[in-house]
Amino acid sequence: MDESREAEIIREVLLGDAQAFEALVRTYQGPVYALMLRNTGDVDTAADLAQEAFTRAYARLETFSTGKRFFPWLYSLALNVSRDWMRRNGRDMHVFMDDAVGMVRVEDQPDDRQAMDDRLDGAKAFDHVMGLAPKYREAMLLRFRYDFSFQEIARTLGITVSGAKMRISRGLEMVRLKFTEVNDDQEQERKTEGRSGARPA
């Protein structure tokens, strides 16, 4: 859905057409539910939290700034719903903190989409990204799956633009290292199979 259509729907909702909001729900319920499932690990809880996120978005729609993309604003609300649930249930919250310890410098890695194309390989890459710590995983998904700008990532995650770049940079590096480990393991397996299959002279 393009931004002009989103803006039109939001105007309709604010003018009293509550049913128009369903178009936004249908468009974004997939990624919102996926976020909740990643953070809760339970399909029923994820569905309930996704519904809560959309309910909260509807109630606060008047606070949305026109001229900006709707999805980053919605995703930020959804993250807050997820965080509230984690606090209530005693889940570890440190993964959402802006901790730069151990991160590489932003300028040490490219920060554009070509970096992802160069380093990642389809379904395997997605599996590696999903295996990252949540604060890196969410930043990577926002950047490369949902096309968020660094500014949008920063606003959504409540961090600085520099922090957003560092999370992407560190995430790319960790995925690259994972690919290297897998390739090394595969090479070792091939060597082992070659030795075991060789006939003695």
Automatic annotation (TrEMBL):
GO terms under biological process = DNA-templated transcription initiation
From which domain of life does this come? Bacteria
> Which residues does the UniProt record annotate as the domain RNA polymerase sigma-70 region?
24-91
- UniProt entry tagged with the keyword Transcription regulation: yes
Keyword Transcription regulation (UniProt): yes
**Cross-referenced SUPFAM superfamilies:** Sigma2 domain of RNA polymerase sigma factors, Sigma3 and sigma4 domains of RNA polymerase sigma factors
For this UniProt record, the keywords arranged alphabetically read as follows: Sigma factor, Transcription, Transcription regulation
Record-level Gene Ontology MF annotations: DNA binding; sigma factor activity
Which residue spans traverse the membrane?
Answer: none
- Family classification: Belongs to the sigma-70 factor family. ECF subfamily.
Name of the protein described by the UniProt record: RNA polymerase sigma factor, sigma-70 family
- Specify the species: Pseudodesulfovibrio aespoeensis (strain ATCC 700646 / DSM 10631 / Aspo-2)
